[in-house]
């Protein structure tokens, strides 16, 4: 049988592990969100460039 102290130490470790996991997940999610927003910006920029290029070509 485990003593009370061992139980509380294990519980504390478990909480710390859970917190560390959630922090890592939060960081991963933020990075993923940044990547997605960068991709959107880049695709929007390229679409705008393509539209400008197409309109210039049609006027010639």
Radius of gyration (Å): 26 Å
Mean pLDDT: 80
Relative helix content: over 70%
Q: What overall geometry do the principal axes of the alpha carbons give?
A: rod-shaped
Biggest β-sheet description: none
Topology:
Layout: H1 4-59
How would you explain this protein's 3D organization?
This protein has one helix at 4-59. It is mainly alpha-helical and 60 residues long. The protein has one domain. The chain is rod-shaped and about 75 Å long.
Produce a short descriptive summary.
The model has no long low-confidence stretch (mean pLDDT 80). With 60 residues, the protein is mainly alpha-helical. It contains one helix and no strands.
List its salient traits.
rod-shaped; 60 residues; 93% helix; mainly alpha
